[in-house]
UniProtKB/TrEMBL annotation:
Domain called C3H1-type: residue spans: 51-78
GO MF: zinc ion binding
Region (Disordered): 91-126
UniProt-recorded name of the protein: C3H1-type domain-containing protein
Organism for this UniProt entry: Cloeon dipterum
Keywords (A to Z) from UniProt: Metal-binding, Zinc, Zinc-finger
Keyword Zinc-finger: yes
Length: 161
């Protein structure tokens, strides 16, 4: 049967030879699928810049536009463009606004409180098994909880002794 090439954009597979791949990649269907894929990851600022220059698509509003992302008219309503403009404005303001020292210290202290662990407590569990295992009696040593105190008096030995 031979090897087959699968196009991730179009979700189609066909013979893996140069002519077939070139024909597929130059097709309108592939170009549209590729543009739709990359349109998902566009930055709102770029979308706003591109769409605000276009006129509104009357066919899209009535549900008849067949061009999708390749349409030369905008598929966004004025309300959607305004909401996107506000989102872009908020992102820019958030990036340029410097946090106050008090808010920075507050965030830092909450992060440190979440991350910090008791250091002096030797009975702290270093590893705890899943709850479904902990109720089973007579667990093998490899599944029993490991306590830090178990390593407090550990003396490494040389190999082979």
């Amino acid at each position: 049967m031979g090897k087959r090439y699968h196009c991730e954009f179009c979700d189609k597979s066909f013979r893996n030879n140069a002519a077939s791949i070139k024909k597929h990649q130059s097709s309108l269907h592939h170009d549209r699928a590729r543009q739709e894929h990359y349109a998902q990851f566009k930055d709102p600022e770029v979308i706003l810049r591109e769409e605000s220059q276009k006129k509104s698509c009357t066919r899209f509003m009535s549900g008849e536009c067949q061009f999708g992302v390749m349409c030369r008219f905008s598929h966004y309503s004025p309300a959607q463009l305004h909401a996107m403009q506000m989102q872009v404005f908020e992102e820019k303001r958030r990036k340029t606004e410097e946090p106050s020292l008090a808010s920075w210290l507050q965030k830092r202290s909450t992060k440190r409180a979440q991350v910090s662990e008791p250091e002096n407590d030797v009975s702290t569990v270093a590893f705890s098994p899943p709850p479904s295992i902990s109720c089973i009696p007579n667990l093998p040593p490899s599944l029993q909880p490991v306590l830090i105190k178990d390593f407090a008096n550990y003396q490494p030995q040389s190999w082979g002794s």
